[in-house]
Amino acid sequence: MNGLFDLPSDLQHSYPGLVGLHLREALIPVAAGLLLALPVAQLCVRLRWLYAPVLGLTTVLYAIPSLAFFVVLIDYTGQTETTVMIPLAVYSLVVLVPAIVDGVRSVPQETLDAATGMGLGAVRRYFQVQLPIAAPAIVAGLRVACVSSISLVSVGMLIGNQGALGNMLYTGMTYGRPRLIWLSVISTAVLAVAVDALLVLALRLLTPWMPRGGARPARKAAAR
Amino acid sequence: MIRIEAVTKRYPDGTVAVDRLSLDIPDRAITVLVGPSGCGKTTTLRMINRMVEPSEGRILIDGVDSRQQPVNTLRRSMGYVIQNAGLFQHRTIVDNIATVPRLLGWGKSKSRDRARELMERVGLDPALAGRYPYQLSGGQQQRVGVARALAADPPVLLMDEPFSAVDPVVRKGLQDELLRLQDELGKTIVFVTHDIDEAVKLGTMVAVLRTGGRLAQYAPPAELLSAPADAFVEDFLGADRGIRRLSFFPSAGLDLLTGPVVRADAGAGEITARDTGGAPWLLVTDADGRPLGWTEPGTLAAGPAGPARLLSYGRPFVAGRDSLRAALDCAVLSPTGWAVAVDEEGRVTGVVSQQAIGDAIRAAHATGRGSDGTPDGTSESVCDPAHGDRTPKAAR
Question: To the nearest whole angstrom, how far is the Cα of A34 from the nearest Cα of chain B?
Answer without folding.
Answer: 22
